[in-house]
Amino acid sequence: MSLRQHVEMDTHHWVSKQNKVERRRKRVRMLAFAKFAEAKGARHPGQVGSNTVVSFWKHLRTEGLAWETQRDYWYSIKALWEIWGKPDEPPQPRKPVQPADDSSQQRQQVVD
């Protein structure tokens, strides 16, 4: 059985509860993560760990996805972690560092 099939089976009843539209969106993101993990060699939920999640964040950054989208993926993976009964939380994506704004320093020098 593939990892994607595990995700589909494990989330089948979870999707039918509460906010169905949002849970379907999360499930789509879970399946995208499972597809990535399968490409890395994972075939069972027990083979998916923090290293897989960190690799996934790096992959998303190379695709140029916005920080908010990466955060949405994290919430989906966190829900999957809870469904699978894994301890703790998955690693979070790093928030991009904003470059220093030189224009404010230049304005300060002009005022002085």
Helix content: 55-70%
Terminal Cα span: 69 Å
Q: C-alpha Rg, in Å?
A: 19 Å
Coarse structural class:
mainly alpha
Number of helices: 5
CATH topology assignment: DNA polymerase, domain 1
Number of domains as seen in the coordinates: 1
DSSP strand count: 0
Please tell me the CATH architecture by its name. Orthogonal Bundle
Spans with pLDDT under 50 lasting ≥5 residues? none
Percent in strands? under 5%
Biased composition (Low complexity): 101-112
Region (Disordered): 86-112
Organism: Hydrogenophaga atypica
Protein name: Integrase
What does this structure look like?
The protein has 112 residues and is an all-alpha fold. It has a single domain (3-111), classed as Orthogonal Bundle (DNA polymerase, domain 1). Helix content is 66%, strand content 0%. The protein contains five helices and no strands. The chain has helices at 3-15, 20-39, 50-62, 67-84, 102-111. Helix 2 (20-39) crosses helix 4 (67-84). It is globular. The model has no long low-confidence stretch (mean pLDDT 88). Residues 86-112 are annotated as: Disordered. This is Integrase. Residues 101-112 have a biased composition (Low complexity). It comes from Hydrogenophaga atypica.
